[in-house]
Amino acid sequence: MTSFLRSREAILAAAILALLVLISSRFPAFVEPGNLARVFTDTSPLILLALGQTVVILTRCIDLSVAANLALTGMVCAMLNAAYPGVPVAVILILALGMGAVMGMINGLMVWKLKIPPIVVTLGTMTIYRGLIFVLSGGAWVNAHEMSAAFTGFPRVDILGLPVLAWIAILVTGLFFLGIARTPLGRAFYAVGGNPHAAVYTGIDVGRTQFMAFTISGMLAGLTGYLWVARYSVAYVDIAGGFELEVVAACVIGGISIAGGAGTILGTLLGALFLGIVKNALPVVDISPFWQLAISGTAIIVAVAFNSRSGRSKGRIILKRAEGHA
Amino acid sequence: MTDIADHQQAPRRIPDRLQGPGARLLKSWELLLFLVAVAIFTANSFASPYFLNAWNLSDATFNFTEKAMIAFAMALLIIAGEIDLSVASIIALCSTAMGAAVQYGAGTPELVLIGLVTGLACGAFNAVLVTKMGLPSIVVTIGTMSLFRGISYIVLGDGAYRGYPAEFAYFGQGYVFWVISFEFVLFALLAVLYYVLLHRTNFGRMVYAIGNNATAASFSGIRVARVKFILFLLTGLMSGIAAICLTSRLGSTRPSIAFGWELEVVTMVVLGGVSILGGSGSIPGVVIAAFVMGLVTFGLGLLNVPGIVMSIFIGLLLIGVIALPRLWAMWRH
Amino acid sequence: KGAEEAAKELGNVEVIYTGPTDTTAEGQIEVINSLIAQNVDAIAVSANDTDALVPALKKAMQRGITVISWDSGVAPEGRQLHLNPSSNPLIGNMIIKLAADNLPEGGKVAVLSATTTSTNQNIWIEEMNKVMGNYPGIEVVGTVYGDDLADKSYREAQGLMQTYPDLDAIIAPTSVGIVAAARAVEDAGKVGQVNVTGLGLPSEMAGAIESGASKSFAIWNPIDLGYSATYLAYELATGDAEAAPGAEIPMGRMGKLTLDDNNEGAMADPFVYDESNIDEFKSIF
Amino acid sequence: MQVSLTTPPVAHVTADAAPVLRLEGITKTFPGVKALDGVTLELYPGQVTALVGENGAGKSTIVKTLTGIYQPDGGTISLGGAPVHFATAQDATAAGITAIHQETVLFDELSVAENIFIGHAPRTRFGLIDWPKMRRDAQEILSRIDADLDPDMPLRELGIASKHLVAIARALSVDARVVIMDEPTAALSHKEIEELYELVERMRAEGRAILFISHKFDEIFRIADRYTVFRDGQHVGSGLISEVDEAELVRLMVGRSVDQIFPQRAHNIGDEVLKVVGYAHPTEFDEINFTLRRGEILGFYGLVGAGRSELMQALFGVTKPSKGAVRIDGQVRVIRSPAEAVENGIVYVPEDRGRQGAVIGLPIFQNVTLPSLAQTSRHGFLRLSEEFALAREYTERLDLRAAALDQDVGTLSGGNQQKVVIAKWLATKPKVIILDEPTKGIDIGSKAAVHGFMAELAAQGLSVIMVSSEIPEVLGMSDRVIVMREGLIAAELEGEALTPENLVRHAAGIGARP
Ligand SMILES: Nc1ncnc2c1ncn2[C@@H]1O[C@H](COP(=O)(O)OP(=O)(O)OP(=O)(O)O)[C@@H](O)[C@H]1O
Ligand SMILES: Nc1ncnc2c1ncn2[C@@H]1O[C@H](COP(=O)(O)OP(=O)(O)OP(=O)(O)O)[C@@H](O)[C@H]1O
Ligand SMILES: [Mg+2]
Ligand SMILES: [Mg+2]
Q1: Subunit composition (chain B) (predicted)?
Q2: CA distance D513 to D174
Q3: pLDDT in tens, D298-309
């Protein structure tokens, strides 16, 4: 327990609480349960993508293509719905997951089999996926009236006071808690990122594990693609432009080490919520939205400086008599 | 060839080089890239009747000169094993600082000075975080990327600075001689300077050593942190110079200026044969890559291909040039 | 679409339509440069930055190319004339009137504007503020920016409803913003309490009218706009007309454009859409 | 010593016992090194086989081959008579072979329990990892080796010795027929070592086959039943431990007499060059005092992990000492970075050649001139002809074998890389050269060359500090030897006192234990 209180997650949670207290002191309406639920719903896409990015970063990679993957999958879903309004949402969901996963696999294969650095691979696929949206849609928008009610309605169906979008984020977060803690693959992400050399000694295939991470990240990006397009009832080339950096920022603020192998799902969740609350609070507390960028930039720098300080390893001790004091 | 002959006469003598300069050139990335550039140039001149026109080609250079200036410094930084993703945001901040100075009646010399100093200051900020505090540069500069542009947004909001002095327009719109623009001359000059710096000085050698193995470089008596500090400063300075040119070319400043350029600059550097993992790459490679990207975008522009479709080509080019040799090697195995 | 119609009428015109794929000024300059290189006769541009395109467009004019701007304008030195879809005072008045018409007792309204680099919205809001005196009881409580991004606009609209729980209307003089605001109102369950109005496309707003989130909104006809812009560019490029203050330039079926001191002219009044006519137009544009 | 207690009952060691594991003709080549050259190894159930050999003899390589980490280039492995092939580490574990590797192969961010079970964690019915069971099992294994560790503790919070216990627990978490231990006692304290011995006893009684790799003869003679000796990647002998003595093992290991191979040299030692006074570091070393004179070779002996490398790196400015001073030619100097050390004439040839020594990726000549750029350049501009000249001068003096000077240093064999690193330093004309394990992983021929020019350097008036774990090398080369143990200077030996027994005694702390 005491070790939890000293952990990054606890400090981040405290920072979020402080933030909420600060906002509520001026705008009590912000912390009303209904509004907090709205903020959570609004942050759900960020949470989903950040979870996927987390496993990628854990394995010492980075996925810059998530936002483009989201947009492409979203556009395909929207166009499919516009052309065949009768296709059930379940099929669209499967399509979104599958398409996203395939795009993630393309990234993963190039990292695994061709050993191309992840940042180069995903920088390239980021522009390619984004460009494909234009090629597919010819630059045209798919608008609300072209989408079926079932299509746009799905993420906002209300279950126990929360929309489906929020429930999906909760469900996926739950799955991640379970999957990371309780499956061999989940533990392999840590092993591969923390000590790739040693991972080989325990029979873990480093490249394959990285491939799996990219696949998961892509799959979530695809899922979010459909949800995003349905929620805002519009699909066009630029949706979620630049979102990949916000996703990486959420992970970094959540304490996921960019060097791999360190960080928790709880941290990512809190990092995403932190950004989500800041984003939603700015218009409410009447700080110009133009401050948002500088605030998240500062948060990233503070978080990374803080994490490197607390994460410094003690190293080994040769002097036997010094061992007791250290 | 003569070297090997020497070797046979005096068995213990180790030749300087295994291959002559010609053989080395033949195997170089730069030559491959140069051929790609020539191919694109030829294809363009067939595809569009407007391509082979001095003024048009001159206009086309504006598509890459400013980005390439940053790419030179970025190349050194990436060779040394670091990266700076905040360059485009530094442009925004420099431009904002200059725009603010205009409102106080600053003249052209002051503006240039302010642009350069702001760039240096941003570079120094990154440098301190990375070299003094030991933070990973990719995360730090994702942070400062938001921070620097964020400051521009705070200052400018949805407003814009305009009213730059008439002489100031020279940097981005002036021509030195006939169709040769000031920006192109500056680009060429910087290319030569960076070529000399990276390939002909002790400093450049240290950059390579650090990128290949920073620990061993440090164990060889190189002041690694100092070299990296200078590289971040240089990148900031180049962003300042690019900010001057771009602001001059646009004649106004908005916080969204140069949005997304950091990735284009990195793409240019990687396409130029610089290993993203550090340790190898060359300035001629980056220069040719700048031309390749400029030619591709201009050529496709003449065919009225939308910008976003061009980016598919750039993305494919980036992955393709790295993947194809590896696929080839795998296939031959 | 309107541009092609005009081209067909005029006969000897070829329309090259590029964009709107470049959202940055730097990208638009590259496009303009490639158009200059192709020796086009006229460029009709809808700018996303008033000032940044000026040097490039000046260069185009120096090389004998006719340059006009339409919809979202360029500073006067960067074009020969500017075609406003409608006159700015009219739009400014229209958007507040739409809100006020549904608030006979007065009330609180907020503005959800668009991107930070387009000038239209600011001019309209300025014009709107000028005529506020004509609408007693209507109070504009705040202006926020959605950057013409669906998600950001949505969030800003949500923020407005929280900050001002008794908000009566949101005015969004942007087609992205108005759709997002209507969504936000629907999701917040405030249909009937908060009326969304402003400028939007019938095709995108049909759903909002149906649900009641928006009672009415206005827009000009974009097809007519493209048509007019093409016609004007043609007239100037062929030398049949000259852009000077006070000049009247024909634009086919849309009548004539009269230029003011800034060489600007307005095409037509915005048209109001509500549940009575939305079905008729939603499939057209 | 309690040798009598652990002398194995003769009944165990009958000649007709069938080996459970048999390796035959195993060959493994790395770029530049033939690590294993057709070796044979047999392990018997219920017996401990000691594998001995000098550093670099190929002991760890055979362990990795046996556990699926390396694939052998040739030869066969048979388990219980049937040939087997291990593609991954998991295959070997599944076949009942488990190992404590020499290097720590653990994960700092994972908990103790997980480090023990990663790769073969207990699962629930739904295929999920069963944490409660994993914790309980971990606790049980840890208590079996008397390790008082919390299974939930993150590994990064443990010291090196505790980490080693976790590694041991990991090996025991598999119900294995064959247990391999690669220098398991190197990082353990006296008490933990005793417990480990008991554990080995128990496993032997349970009928498991144990391969035990160690450099410590006392423990080999205490717990092993059989021995196998490797030398330079070859199998040079094996048999029952009861049938050999220490001298015979050493003869097999070294394969040559000491004075035969080391160069004769004139001992003309001059004035004091370096004096280290009261050097200390919070966790690595303390109370370090010694002097070094011109033309002298000062040996530093100790068991691996005694802190010699850390001390040398502090002298070279890599780490900062907390107290103490250095005098060079009588003057106090402050050395805060390697750059300053080089300026003061102290240079360091590191032990970890690939990471700290050669800049792999740069050509040979650039490696050589890296610290001497000020000399070869003019106004900061490179002069390639000067560089080639300098590089040629020193590499030829060291008899470097390379195709050309612009060859990537990474393509050279270990010994030749070492020569490049040394050439790099000689070109700076230093006063003191520190060589950390200069012949580690180098073949015999190159070793002789390295020894030859060390002698030459000293003869030319250079002062040499040589850190080495090889007794013959220390005895054969040094004028004087300092023995370190656990971060302290245990003894300074010279002349008559320089005997293998003395070195081992001081290094291991026998008879000196408080
Ligand atoms: N991955 C590798 N790449 C290249 N060479 C290697 C590699 N692993 C081992 N070697 C070389 O193979 C030889 C045998 O090494 P090995 O680690 O098996 O020795 P060892 O007997 O375990 O020595 P020690 O007693 O120091 O542990 C050495 O020359 C070493 O440098
Ligand atoms: N942080 C660490 N965790 C685990 N093992 C380590 C760590 N640092 C070093 N070692 C191991 O300790 C051993 C050597 O330690 P060190 O170099 O300090 O001792 P030394 O007395 O100089 O011995 P030698 O020079 O003979 O290796 C190496 O085998 C190395 O792998
Ligand atoms: Mg070993
Ligand atoms: Mg050592």
Answers
A1: The complex is composed of two ATP-binding proteins (LsrA), two transmembrane proteins (LsrC and LsrD) and a solute-binding protein (LsrB).
A2: 36
A3: 999 987 678 888
